[in-house]
Design goal:
By secondary structure, this protein is mainly beta. The chain has one helix and five strands. It has one helix at 49-55; strands at residues 11-14, 24-29, 33-38, 44-48, 56-61. A five-stranded antiparallel sheet has the order 4-3-2-1-5. A hairpin with a 5-residue loop joins strand 3 (33-38) and strand 4 (44-48). The longest helix has 7 residues, at 49-55. The N and C termini lie far apart (25 Å). It binds zinc ion (ZN). The site of zinc ion has 7 residues, from loops.
Length: 64
């Protein structure tokens, strides 16, 4: 399985928009589960890595 190389604080775009209208999220946890914070409303969501990989559209801005 291909694991997208996401890191803490990366800004990512997901395939589905959050109900608040934003499709951008910031990574706040990386591990077996990936934690993302909605850039629009600040809602935090924890996704299993496989689910995250499927929903990820692209990494907008990798943190340095
Ligand atoms: Zn939101």
């Amino acid at each position: 399985m291909i694991m997208p190389d996401v890191k803490m604080h990366d800004r990512v775009q997901m395939r589905k928009k959050h109900p608040c209208g934003s499709d951008e999220w910031v990574i706040h946890r990386v591990g077996a589960d990936v934690g993302i914070t909605c850039a629009g409303c600040g809602r935090r969501v924890l996704l299993a890595r496989a689910v995250f990989n499927k929903r990820l559209k692209k990494i907008i801005e990798p943190s340095s």
